[in-house]
Specification:
Number of helices: 12
Largest sheet: 8 strands, mixed
Strand order of the largest sheet: 4-11-10-9-8-5-6-7
Number of strands: 16
Distance between the termini: 44 Å
Strand content: 15-25%
Length: 424
């Protein structure tokens, strides 16, 4: 199985085969950066076979969730300055200044000159991996977390090494798994708040991570795309890694999550830390980014107006996530065998269920028998069985009915109906 919930790619069907004692596929050699097996996993295959899922609780695309987008939201894209092309590897200064100003709400003041625009946070990771790593090097990534890290690293010819987040302590960093890593590590990733556990990086863990990065000369990469969506909150809420000055830190954000605009394709890296290290990193980022110049000029010029006009949309997404999480809590209370874990922030909820059936089998059963789509915990690296991940983005009515069906379906699996026959 690919383990990649985003994968919708099939394995090529070769029409020829062995010739002259060796296999000769009709395509050129495919590098090892691309997995050899790209067949659909069982869940993706079932979703394709079924088609529309009545209660899809995996949706992560806000544009498909019934939000009302301001009619003038994209007006800034008509700025006539977008007809001129003056390439800058970091992006237009006006846009970078707008990004820097966004951090004021968290008490940070990154230098706009240290902001680098990218087309997505995935691209931002790619730029940073190219900057910090040689082929064969590694980056540390939390587990459980995004399933995308492994794929992004593989495409850059590097590896990810997992460090554990301990669910028994509120998803605190398990430092022994981090400190005992191999010498080829060049950077450590934190997700604040993490996806899907929703946990903010605890202030004590943050201080220890910063000190470790400074000591080992690692770069610290902080993904904060969900920072502005607190739910339960907790230690670390309301803080940003863009205030880090003791080690080299690259803080990521983007419009895909902050404004629910994945189609606009604009994200950023805010580089902070010791002056000499920041200058050295930005010099390298200029070289890498200038090779691609992927950011659209009209999009970058529209950023200030997008941030202003999109505030109401952000608030609507945040309100829905909080409302759906509250509904989930209320519905789970009637099922003592299941537990909804605390969520500091983000767009996802994590449900702990009895391990009477494997996660994949349970998800397939819910999909095929109840029309409910959820993600298995193993997609995200949860250890052990019995974890399900649910999106908080669907419309409130659909979400409530979908969760009822989800919980009832699991309950039926845990406690099957009694037979009317009399035993001997």
């Amino acid at each position: 199985m690919s383990g990649n919930p985003k994968s919708e790619i099939r394995n090529p069907k070769w029409t020829d085969g062995w010739a002259g004692g060796r296999y000769n596929p009709p395509m050129p050699y495919r590098s090892q950066r691309v997995p050899s097996d790209l067949t659909l996993n069982r869940l993706a295959a079932a979703r394709e076979r079924i088609g529309d899922i009545p209660y899809d609780l995996t949706v992560s695309n806000p544009t498909a969730c019934g939000f009302t987008y301001p009619t003038d939201l994209l007006a800034g894209l008509a700025d006539l300055r977008g007809l001129d092309y003056t390439p800058d590897p970091r992006g237009p200064m006006a846009a970078r200044t707008a990004v820097a100003a966004e951090y004021k709400r968290w008490g940070a003041a990154p230098d706009p000159d240290g902001v680098v625009l990218t087309a997505s946070t995935s691209e931002a990771y790619g730029l940073l991996f190219r900057l910090f790593c040689d082929p064969g090097d590694a980056v540390l990534a939390p587990s459980p977390s995004y399933p995308l890290f492994e794929h992004l690293a593989r495409l850059e010819g590097i590896e990810t090494v997992s460090y554990a987040l301990d669910g028994d302590t509120g998803w605190r960093v398990d430092f022994p798994t981090l400190e005992g890593c191999r010498p080829q590590v060049r950077a450590v990733i934190v997700v604040h708040p993490n996806n899907p556990t929703g946990s903010f990086v605890h202030p004590d863990d943050r201080a220890r991570l910063v000190a470790l990065c400074r000591e080992r000369r690692w770069a610290l990469i902080a993904d904060e795309v969900f920072l502005s969506y607190p739910i339960d909150g907790g230690p670390g809420e309301g803080t940003t890694f863009a205030t880090v000055e003791e080690c080299l830190c690259c803080t990521l954000g983007g419009l895909s999550k902050s404004l629910g605009l994945p189609q606009i394709k604009l994200a950023w890296i805010a580089v902070t830390g010791p002056e000499q290290r920041v200058r050295y990193a930005l010099e390298g980022l200029d070289y890498v980014a200038d090779t691609y110049l992927s950011v659209s000029t009209p999009t970058a010029l529209a950023l200030p107006s997008l941030l202003n006009a999109g505030e109401s949309l952000h608030d609507a997404i945040a309100d829905r996530c909080r409302t759906n999480f509250k509904t989930f809590h209320e519905l789970v209370s009637g099922h003592p065998a299941m537990t909804l874990t605390p969520i500091g922030g983000g767009w996802s909820a994590v449900l702990r269920v009895p391990s009477v059936l494997g996660e994949e089998g349970l998800c397939l059963q819910l999909l095929e028998q109840h029309g409910v789509g959820v993600q298995p915990g193993y997609f995200f690296g949860f250890h052990g069985n019995g974890w399900l991940v649910v999106s908080l983005l669907p419309s409130c009515g659909l979400f409530a009915e979908g969760v009822r069906l989800l919980l009832d379906g699991i309950a039926q699996t845990v406690t099957p109906p009694h037979s009317d026959s009399v035993g001997g």
